[in-house]
Amino acid sequence: MEIFNGTQQAIANKINKTSTISNWRDWKWQLKNSISNIDQFEKLTGITFNADEKSQLKKTLEKFPLSITPYYASLISTENYQNDPVFKQSFANVHELHVLDTDLTDPLSEDKDSPEEGITHRYPDRVLFHVSNVCAMYCRHCTRKRKVGDIDFIPSKEQLQKGIEYIKNTPQVRDVLLSGGDPLMLPDSKIDWLLSELTAIPHVEVVRIGTRMPVVLPYRITDELVQILKKYQPLWINTHFNHPREMTASAKEAVRKLADGGFPVGNQTVLLANVNDCPRIMKKLVHKLVQNRVRPYYLYQCDLSEGLSHFRTPVGKGIEIMESLIGHTSGFSVPTYVIDAPGGGGKIPVMPNYIISWSTHKVVLRNYEGVITTYKEPDHYENKFCDRDCENCNLELNMEESDEMQSLGIEKLLADSNDSISLIPENNERHNRRDD
Ligand SMILES: *Cc1c(COP(=O)(O)O)cnc(C)c1O
Question: Where does the Radical SAM core domain start and stop, copy by copy (predicted)?
């Protein structure tokens, strides 16, 4: 049991000779004693760097700040730290200063898709609401690396109010995703207030919280916090485990509290070179997640943000991992592998190919074992013309509240009710040459 092991006791005593287990398990004590510079890191972990390494690391920290909770630092295996997944995710690396020509400061164009400070509105029915600029631990692979921690910034009620107003005035938003930074860096009272405001908006059907607290500061998931969150169901929680080593006794306790609180808990993993780019590690991770009632949700291809080049893998590595999961293990253990499109196109799922060929009446497929099989399609299938007029439709699909939105994108090309036959990029030269 890890709960308060020898390493943790030793770190706690270096922070303060009189530290106890109850200090260690107090999330505010953990935050107050978080590691933010190299000397502190050396002192608490016993890992040391030479003068040359130190001066390089200091330069890195000037650009991208450091913050590691004593708890997360206690998971580093100090004998072999260079190869340690916790060390690599949390401690600065001089490669962060290597900026490639192809790196982008805002790869997901979150700023361009921001109609209001703190809001990213990219998809038709849901928004991302950045409610804090700080985290308990600054992930070295953070996609918002340039922004997060810049200025320690917890927005005031007035600032949050603007985002709330935007959501109030935008009736198509039915799903609000609280993100940051880490939303659970806010004090309980602010979280309580924010959720009460959001859930009072009639068109907001669900709220989600994206937080890495169960991984980097599991003691943040207190009984009091769970009692507050429980008032605002349906509330979904997504966390961010990247390696099986992170599923410690304390992390298990945190996710157990959330699952017992009745929240569906999901997990988003980032595919990281030399951290988890291995089918066996990934399989172990998803198994540990589902054992603890956490559903693998997304596996992300590492973004094109500045300073992440040493973490990126080819897309083929992700496909290889998906190949090793699909069919080989329980369907609910398999995340969706996505590439968040540079330029703000949103998440694009990618998968191995399972359809080998197709004729008018047969599909040829292959399974995970390499068995090739055929599916015979129906000889007769009467297509029902759909003009999106559900009122006059005789299908049982005729739904109450058929508030069908305009069809969009590829869906539009497939729809009967829309006569578009193609989607043409703006400024297509061939089209510009036409005179009509
Ligand atoms: C990821 C993301 C969402 C949520 O996407 P889901 O696929 O619904 O989880 C919403 N808005 C933005 C800007 C995002 O990046």
Answer: 121-333
Closest CA to 34 of 7, 54, 11, 57: 11
Task: Look at residue 153 and tell me whether its pLDDT is greater than 80.
Answer: no
Check if 208 is active-site: no
| CATH fold of 119-352 | TIM Barrel (3.20.20)
Domain ranges in the chain are: 6-97, 119-352
Q: From ligand 1's centre to the CA of 128, what distance in Å?
A: 7
Annotated binding site for [4Fe-4S] cluster: 135, 139, 142
Q: What is the pLDDT of residues 177-206, one digit of tens each?
A: 999 899 999 999 999 999 999 999 999 999
* Radius of gyration for the alpha carbons in the chain, expressed in angstroms and rounded: 24
User: Does the pLDDT at position 12 exceed 70?
Assistant: yes
Alpha carbon distances (Å) from 21 to 25, 193, 209, 215, 263: 6, 31, 28, 19, 28
Q: Phi/psi at 210 (nearest 5 deg)?
A: -100, 115
- Residue located nearest, by CA, to atom 5 of ligand 1: 347
Please indicate whether residue 226 or residue 110 has the higher confidence score (pLDDT).
Answer: 226
Nearest alpha-carbon partner for 250 in 26, 89, 33, 10: 26
